[in-house]
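Q: Structure tokens for this one, please.
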Amino acid sequence: MAYSADDALGSARGKRFSRRWIIACPPVLVLFGALAYGALLLLAPPLLWVEAIPRPVDAIVVLGGDGPPRAARASQLYREGMAPHVYVVGNGDCLHISLAMINAGVPASAIGIECKSGNTWENALFSLPLLARDRIGSAIIVTSWFHTRRALATFQALAPYITWLPVGAKQNPNLIDIAASRDGWAVVLEYIKIAGYVVKYGLDPLPTIPRRQAAAQDHDAPASWLG
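A: Here is the predicted structure, written as tokens:
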């Protein structure tokens, strides 16, 4: 089969285009990924963050993971007299969180521990016997700010008879700091986890808190969000 000069010229042009695309593709993908990453972080406060104004309740439930900030926030709430009982739930760092709270002035006698649960659903499921034993009717959930929506939805799904008030461990997240830290990827992963919970557990991703308790519900982003 014979090839003309036009065929050869077209083939050469095609090869040059392919080489240019191979060279240009990685930077384009990096740029697209960076834009998507930034967009997901910017959308995180209105989509992932629900916050209640802390008020006196029966208990404080501290979820495992990102232990030091959660321990510090829960200890602060306890010292402010928000609850007489504290429950630390989740394997991995439950003992570390408990010890940090004791060092922060929370009596060991006030702390209950559940160290077997490995995810948010199990946090709620495995803590319910402790809450039922102590007749808990209202509780503050302390977790990472971007985890508050899924945590609230999960605890409401498994124990709708308890009044749940979500409180983020860090009250004023900073976008620049988060983007440059591992928390940024944790925020991005949270979108995937919510979708997974909707599929696996039929979770309602739009939990509600008592209107008079809403604090961060109506914000787009706090002033400190952008630094």
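A few notes: The chain has two domains: 1-48+174-204+218-227, 50-171. The mean pLDDT is 84.
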